[in-house]
Amino acid sequence: MLKNELAKVHKLHRKATYNRLSPNSTPMILIKTAADLNQYLTGKQLTGKTIGLVPTMGALHKGHLGLIEYSNKKTNITVASIFVNPTQFNDPNDYARYPVTLENDLFLLEKAGCDIVFLPSVTEMYPNGLNSSHTYDLGYLENILEGKYRPGHFQGVCRVVDTLLRIVQPNQLFLGQKDYQQCMVIKKLIQLLDLPTRLEIIPTIREESGLAMSSRNMRLSDQDKISAAAIYQSMVFIREHLTQGLAKNWIIEATALLTHAGFEKIDYVSIADADNLTEIVTWDGKTSVVVLVAAFIGGVRLIDNLRIA
Ligand code: PAF
């Protein structure tokens, strides 16, 4: 039913469509401007339909496709955005080297059953330029862990997600648990903006080795990919050993494990309260705990986390 409706609406957007693999299914629609997307989503053909948003920076992998799958199950229309957001990169080299695999991304999204892909330009997302004096009050979340090592990162994430939420007005927003702190920041953003959007956090998808799926993995050599599984092993090590009392020793051991595996720089191994990310120095044996890691291998910075108790 919905697919038929989309097919009808699609006629209005003929130029902006991407051919579905199967000739019998509705084409996925590609939209490049906020005005077109907004007009499309608020058009009367889609009235009453629920919308799921999966924001991405492209270089898609199974983790992203899992989010599309969830959105397809939980909402009527899935919108995926692909936008490498310049304001969230504190390191210009990281931005310049961020993998771009657009053709493949569209192929994968299409295959996963995504309905609409929003593919804006930088000027579309930032019509008034990249500088802004507005800041989001994220409290301490902004300056710990990722915030400490990537100053300004979460302000940039909030700017782009704020804009996407205003354009798409989704019922549900789907994010991966791999970016644990980002999920907490965006939960806070939704509260700050007082939006009705429900945030759904989807479990991390891993390679068989335990390595979390990430766009940055594309930049790893085969050997580094094997070694990088030590992040997962270090978190499992903490899960297996953490007992009530001082947490520090397990952090030291996990850090040694990463160094031994070939990680050249470790930003943090942290044991934190899973609900608010405050550091756990002495575990009471009851508080729910998450282990978070950020470390470099082969010049690539990887992050991961594991809920352990
Ligand atoms: O997680 C990401 O890929 C990005 O931070 C996001 C949420 C798409 C915002 O640019």
What's the short story on this structure?
A seven-stranded mixed sheet has the order 1-2-5-4-3-6-7, with helices on both faces. Strands 9-11-12 form a three-stranded antiparallel sheet, with helices on one face. With 309 residues, the protein is α/β, with parallel strands linked by helices.
Describe this structure in words.
- The protein has 309 residues and is α/β, with parallel strands linked by helices.
- It contains twelve helices and twelve strands.
- The chain has a seven-stranded mixed beta sheet with strand order 1-2-5-4-3-6-7, with helices on both faces. Strands 9-11-12 form a three-stranded antiparallel beta sheet, with helices on one face. It has a two-stranded antiparallel sheet with strand order 8-10.
- The radius of gyration is 20 Å and the shape is globular.
- The termini are far apart.
- 34% of the residues are buried.
- Bound molecules: pantoate (PAF).
- The site of pantoate has 10 residues, from strand 3 and helix 8.
Summarize the SSE layout with pairings.
Elements: H1 2-10, E1 17-18, E2 28-31, H2 34-42, E3 51-56, H3 62-74, E4 77-82, H4 92-96, H5 102-112, E5 116-118, H6 122-125, H7 146-149, H8 153-168, E6 172-176, H9 180-193, E7 198-202, H10 222-228, H11 230-241, E8 245-246, H12 248-261, E9 265-273, E10 282-283, E11 289-297, E12 300-307
Parallel strand pairs: 2-5, 3-4, 3-6, 4-5, 6-7
Antiparallel strand pairs: 1-2, 8-10, 9-11, 11-12
Helix pairs in contact: 8-9, 11-12
The structure holds pantoate.
Pantoate (PAF) binds at residues 55-57, 85, 88, 157, 160-161, 179, 182.
